[in-house]
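Chapter summary example.
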Amino acid sequence: MKAFQAIKVVGGALIVLASLNAYAQSSDADAASSMAAPSAKSTKAANRALQRSVRKALSRTKGLSVNNITVRARGGAVTLEGSVPEQPQIDIATQAAQGVQGVTSVKNALTIRPIGQ
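The structure predicted for these 117 residues follows.
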């Protein structure tokens, strides 16, 4: 009878130890994954902040009309879309966007559309 009770106690202790070990491992994995991958919310916020920074840099650039330029950012890659009145403004916009901190690449999809068209 005493042996049966001893086996129950040892078995219960082993179950408790195994569950604590499993809990500790899953908590470590959760912490590592939250540190490794930024959340979708923070990624969107970073992209929006980069878009604002590029737009601000474009608007401060002399000789550039930003009225019809749209800026999109995704993970440091910036896309410029829309139209400008003259060819040199396309190059100016690209250079201004490349000078912004956090920009890793610039895709220029700007077209030329003279004023009034």
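To summarize the output: The domain at 40-112 is CATH 3.30.1340.30 (Histidine-containing Protein; Chain: A;).
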